[in-house]
Amino acid sequence: MRYEYELDFEVRDYECDLQGIVNNAVYLHYLEHSRHKYLLSKGIDFAKMHEEGKDLVVVRVEADYKSPLKSGDRFVVRLNVSKEGRLRMVFHQDIYRLPDEKLVLKAKTLGVCLLNGRPVVAEEVERALFS
């Protein structure tokens, strides 16, 4: 599969639980950080949008854990983005351990833009991601 964006990481000791593997909740941080970096690479400025009363928010995350990561493991988060309906952005994100490319996690994250608490189409996001 071809991906629009990817970001490399390395597991830090404090991200692991007593079993010596990355805690399930930490994967959500990896996914979020890669989405933010992707959006920044597309020129989407969260701070500016927030000042205008617009906030990009996650409304749903589906994550299928396939294989654990351990302290010191290198890995990559790869993503694609698509539309679902008029308002929802869908981030398809996969995590692979490096260098063997073993699939660690498959995730689908749905997001919307809120303007004063109501879902809206953010024109700057539409232009940056879908035109």
Describe this structure in words.
This protein has 131 residues and is α+β, with helices and mostly antiparallel strands. 24% of the residues lie in helices and 44% in strands. The chain is built from 3 helices and 6 strands; from the N terminus they run βααβββββα. It has helices at 24-41, 46-51, 123-130, and strands at residues 5-10, 54-65, 74-84, 88-98, 102-115, 118-120. Strands 1, 2, 3, 4, 5 and 6 form a 6-stranded antiparallel sheet that branches. The longest helix has 18 residues, at 24-41. The protein is elongated, with a radius of gyration of 16 Å. The two termini are 21 Å apart. The relative contact order is 0.23. The mean pLDDT is 96. This is Acyl-CoA thioesterase. Belongs to the 4-hydroxybenzoyl-CoA thioesterase family. InterPro entries: 4-hydroxybenzoyl-CoA_TE, HotDog_dom_sf, YbgC/YbaW.
What is the number of helical segments per DSSP (H or I, 4+ residues)?
3
The H-and-E topology, N to C, reads as EHHEEEEEH
What is the β-strand count? 6
Structural class by secondary-structure content: alpha+beta
Helix content: 10-25%
Mean pLDDT: 96
What portion of residues belong to β-strands?
A: 35-45%
Morphology call: elongated
Give a quick account of the main beta sheet: strands, pairing sense, barrel closure. Answer: 6 strands, antiparallel
Low-pLDDT runs of 5+ residues are none
Radius of gyration: 16 Å
* First-last Cα distance: 21 Å
Short structural description:
The protein is of the alpha+beta class and 131 residues long.
Topology:
Layout: E1 5-10, H1 24-41, H2 46-51, E2 54-65, E3 74-84, E4 88-98, E5 102-115, E6 118-120, H3 123-130
Antiparallel strand pairs: 1-3, 2-5, 3-4, 4-5, 5-6
Keywords: Hydrolase
Family: Belongs to the 4-hydroxybenzoyl-CoA thioesterase family.
InterPro entries: 4-hydroxybenzoyl-CoA_TE (IPR050563), HotDog_dom_sf (IPR029069), YbgC/YbaW (IPR006684)
